[in-house]
Amino acid sequence: MATSAGLVSVTTGSLVVSGTLTSFVAAEGDQLVLRGITALISRAISPSQLQLKQPWPGPDITGASDWDISLTGPYWNQSTTTNLRLSQFLAQFEAGPIKWDMAGPPGDRAKYNDQGVGFIFLSLGDPWTLYTKVANTGAESDWSPGQAIRGSPAESTVEAQAARDDARLAAGAAGGSAGTAQTAASQAAGHAGTALSGASTASTQAILAAQQAAAAASAAAQAESLARLVGALSYDMGTLGQPPDGSTNFDFGSL
User: Fold this and answer.
1) How far is CA 71 from CA 1, 56, 75, 77, 183, in A?
2) What is the pLDDT of residue 184?
3) pLDDT beyond 70 at 225
4) How many C-beta atoms lie closer than 10 Å to residue 44's C-beta?
5) Sign of the torsion angle spanned by Cα atoms 21, 1, 62, 45
6) What's the angle, vertex CA 235, arms to CA 230 and CA 241, rounded to 5?
7) Are the C-beta atoms of residues 39 and 57 closer than 8 Å to each other?
8) Does pTM top 0.70 for this prediction?
9) Could you check whether the bond before residue 127 is cis, i.e. omega within 30 degrees of 0?
């Protein structure tokens, strides 16, 4: 649950909930609980305003302190958040000087073998690579040699540094959780083998701990991927240039 400090007010049929001395933290799908009435939240407009998904169904309320926000929306799911941020980063990157028609893992390129000449595919491998259709026979040979996108993180921007640091911290925290869960799984498994009277309980604990370890490890991998994406996408776009020798290797800043 979110911290319910401050007072909130809302009128019947309104989409906006106003706060006084509040610090609203909410995302789409979270729930506002006010005077026993629950309403789905669309977004937090500001620390003092919430937007609801549907008009407020209850009576006019002024200066209420008995409220809370339940963070139950999909945003707080690790994989959902990672995918959302990846989409946001891709949108920012698409606004730069390099354009492409489709992007995806390296193995997805073959899906577009039937596209026409000039079609550009961005391979999200390591490194990111641009491929252009130079023929239209439906074969793998239709693609141009890969144009690797090279660059260095834009350390000069506060936003880039913050995004990078947040992602690394998330990866470290998730990795630590995985290690703790794995230790718990090992201990529970040992209890299952030695304590006859508590074998059933210990075995259940071992299974739950192992599941937690797997989930935490997955979250760690996602966070690490996000950290790499932050580094890959936080380019200093002002230094973009193509080498004077006319090669097809785009350079995003000095390496």
Assistant:
1) 6, 19, 9, 10, 29
2) 55
3) no
4) 22
5) positive
6) 150
7) yes
8) no
9) yes
